[in-house]
Amino acid sequence: MSRICQITGKAPLVGNNVSHANNKRKKRFLPNLRTVRITLEDGTSKKIRIAASTLRTMRKNNSR
Asked: Are 51 and 2 in contact (CB under 8 A)?
């Protein structure tokens, strides 16, 4: 299963780990994915993988 947020489409980014001696090696920055169970309109539930930042934004917008 790929590491992609199913709502926003956030995916891994690529960059460098830079040591104190300025040696560079490749690094993947992975999104912070959480598995959440949501209830659909027809009453069934489904598990989706969303980023923690997306979940936080959704909870913020629902509380208003």
From this structure: no
Tell me which H or E stretch contains 55: helix 52-63
Cα dihedral across residues 54, 57, 61, 64: positive or negative: positive
Flag whether the pTM goes above 0.85.
no
* Residue that is written with structure tokens 């949501």 in the block: 38
CA distances from 45 to 2, 9, 16, 37, 38 (A): 21, 21, 40, 6, 5
Say if CB 13 and CB 5 are below 8 A apart.
no
Residues 3-56: tens digit of each pLDDT: 999 999 999 999 999 999 999 999 999 999 999 999 999 999 999 999 999 999
Let me know: does 54 contact 10? Beta carbons within 8 Å: yes
